[in-house]
Design brief:
heterodimer; A: 144 residues; mainly alpha; elongated; disordered N terminus; B: 213 residues; Rna Polymerase Sigma Factor, Chain: A; 11 helices
């Protein structure tokens, strides 16, 4: 490109020339040289990562902390079944629809199964257990 | 009839073979072999990062992060494209993410310096400063147009290399380049004006002789 003299250029020619000028500016940029310690710094970081334990593999399932939770779940299911079973035994000849009425259940069973207090207490206990297990899995040793 | 390989072609082919050998060594467990890759590509990666942020310190930090990511993800190179294409593409992704996290300090396009008079521009501002203002204005473009321009000029105006680095079709890249260049030309009318203006040396001579006074 010779930008010296170009009188009476059309707008299209000017656009082409401007594009060439833009090319000259953006393509003709000076090259930076890396600083002297750059490669060493990169390799140091890579060596550190290479010697660190591999954290990219799958995280093993924490059976140690999960087992108590699973055992608690099984125990609570067992207690619930036992509760229902004992309620059934206490009313041997009652039709199924009448099993959970106040008349056919003992006071304790009725309180446990029908009252919102029992359900709320079980939910609170479950939530507390979940929180406890989560904290222990996260490595916190305190018991709240 | 095929032409004999040029020096550049031979150098590129040797570099590709050396990259391949180094990658194989690294994958075999010799992480020190990665030093060859760093030595070979540190210049281009730092220069590419510089074009993204125009801050030397940050360019080196971003290039270092790109090398570490390349080392970690070396197994993901499928060897369908050349190693350099994969490396530049990865680096461009790293730079893009880094600049989204902490954007570079740029002037808005409206505040980019423009000489008051095209005929006196080289007297007010030397050519390098004027060119630098255009380069900095490039950073103020929307990302959609900025990155194609950066990669196009980084790859010495090789459209297919820039498109491969961005992972977009050549046609899309051409359209974005055209739009980005049009925005810059609108913002810098002196790019048009300098076509029919006398060069700086001539102006300076006339000024010295008192012809312009």
């Amino acid at each position: 490109m010779n930008p010296k003299k170009a009188p009476n250029l059309s707008s299209e020619q000017l656009e082409v020339g401007a594009g060439q000028e833009l090319d000259r500016i953006l393509a003709g940029e000076a090259t930076l040289l890396p600083s002297s310690g750059f490669a060493a710094s990169v390799m140091l970081q890579i060596e550190q990562q290479a010697s660190a334990p591999d954290i990219q593999g799958p995280i093993p399932f924490p059976w140690r902390w999960a087992l108590p939770g699973i055992a608690a779940l099984i125990a609570s299911l067992g207690s619930l079944l036992w509760l229902v079973g004992s309620a059934l035994r206490s009313t041997p000849f009652a039709p199924p629809a009448a099993l959970l009425t106040h008349a056919n259940l003992s006071f304790v069973h009725a309180l446990t199964l029908r009252s919102p207090l029992g359900t709320a207490a079980m939910a609170l206990a479950g939530a507390w257990l979940c929180l406890l297990l989560a904290r222990r899995m996260a490595g916190e040793s305190s018991w709240l | 009839m095929s032409s004999p390989p040029t020096a550049a072609t031979r150098a590129a082919s040797q570099s590709a073979a050396a990259d391949l050998a180094a990658v194989d060594c690294v994958l075999a467990g010799d992480s020190r072999a990665f030093a060859q890759i760093v030595e070979r590509w540190q210049g281009p990666l730092i220069n590419l990062a510089w074009r993204y942020c125009r801050d030397r310190g940050r360019a080196e930090e971003m290039a270092q992060e790109a090398f570490v990511r390349a080392w970690r993800g070396l197994r993901q190179w499928r060897r369908e494209a050349s190693f350099s294409t994969w490396l530049f593409s990865l680096a461009a992704n790293v730079y893009r993410s880094e600049l989204k996290r902490i954007p570079p300090v740029t002037l808005s396009l409206d505040r980019a310096t423009e000489p008051s008079s095209p005929f006196l521009r080289d007297l007010e501002m030397d050519v390098e400063a004027r060119d630098e203002s255009v380069r900095r204005a490039l950073l103020a473009l929307p990302e959609k147009y900025r990155e194609p321009l950066i990669l196009f000029y980084f790859h010495e105006m090789d459209i297919s290399a820039a498109a491969a680095t961005m992972g977009i079709p050549v046609g899309t890249l051409k359209a974005r380049l055209s739009r980005g260049r049009a925005v810059l030309r609108q913002r810098f009318p002196h790019l048009r004006a300098c076509i029919d203006a006398p060069p700086a040396a001539e102006l300076t001579g006339k000024l010295a002789n008192g012809e312009l006074l």
